[in-house]
What we know:
Its EC number is 3.4.11.1. The protein has 15 helices and 20 strands.
Amino acid sequence: MMMLRGSVRRMTIQAAAYPRFNALTKVSASTAGDEVHFVTEDALKRKMEGSSSFNAEDVKKEKVFREYKDGKRIFHFVVDDSKKNTNGGKDLVAEYRKAACSAVQRLTSLKSTAASFFVECEDDAKSDVGKTVLQSLMLAGYSFDKYITVEDKKPSFLQDVSLHVNGSSFQDAETIAASKGTVLARDLMNERADVANPKGIHDVAERVAADFNLNCHSIVGIPALDHERMHLMSAVGQGSRFEPRLVCLEHMRGPTDAPPVVLVGKGITFDTGGLNLKPTNFIETMHYDMGGTAAVLGTMRAIADLNLPINVVGVLALAENAIGSGAYKPMAVIQSRSGKTVEVGNTDAEGRLVLADALTYAQDRYKPTTVVDVATLTGACVVALGPYGAGLFTNNDDLQSSLVTAGSSVFERVWPLPIFPEHREELKGAFADINSTGTSRYGGASTAAAFLESFIQDSVHWAHVDIAGPSDYSKASGPFNAGGTGFGTQLLTRYLAATAAA
Length: 502
């Protein structure tokens, strides 16, 4: 054992700071700075015909051509239009996304802070392409550099851009609001767990509520949770020095007699696995286990920013799953708020426990007809879908269709997965009403969803979105660098905007 001389010094860090938005936050009608054009290879060849500096082979390989004119850098990023007639035009939109992400990454590497972007596309694709490029501009330049102390090591980011599509200035309020919400979610996920602890995230939620005129209701600490019969949530949090809590943000801007849509986010701010301790190479990224709460909070910011005429409640189920003399134990039997008793099959299946009580509380208090929960719930879903999409479980076909459509339009794909009768059967407990993990190692994502389903009240339309795969990346992909992605924010914002407009 290495011995350290003198006192141990701990880095002093702020409470979970209200996000600094170290990313693009505004889109102007016009901007000075660099100039970026998105063009097809053939269009670029025609435009550069006769230019001595243009080399078609280099452009084909690098997908970009740079020139200088009147002291300004001008970039031409090549868009592959060979798939323009496939997948209903979505593949071409995806190519614009790739080009926009490449452009932002190139500009930030050059320390550019301002640029004008120009897109030419078919008129019937103008809206989809414009929104996708705008989303990419706002997300691809993000960085979490809070703890980098050397200034010249900090990445730069675009601070002011303009976007023009087919010769006209292009802006979209929903895309901008959803992207700002995603940045909030990413900041919370990338923050470390001693800072973005249950209280730290609660503080940020209260700031969002104050800034956007939302009501904020909370139940803080084990005695208060137990008073509300939320014994599953208090059990998960009882081994931590941070008090578990339930935080509800209320956006009530629809008809007064309309029940709210309820969003419930799993917020395990660090997951050790509890006494079923996670091993090395698995535990290190467990500050991302509050990705569901981050997505719900980002969504609440976005819909409030848009002032959507709809009633929505965002429920944050916050706890740290720590180890210690007070930690809850495998095979403990705990009574849920619903009255059902739960046999703890594994303390590392804690997310479904806090969600069960949060779902029951939300249904009891708000009487919703639609509930969507979002959670980094199972490794089994990662095995099934990888980081490319989230698993979707639902008891309502219309809700499924709405979420699939919403996700497809904003590059947050969800894929429907089943809950078979056998998954429900596996959850029968030997010493309690229900076992939290079931008897089989197979179909873990469906078994977890079946557990949550057992806490959904009759006539409630419910969806469970397992975001364990796409919630964080180990390496850069698309508009995301390594770290938390905020997955779910874009999906839920689009779904709610469509619901409000229906």
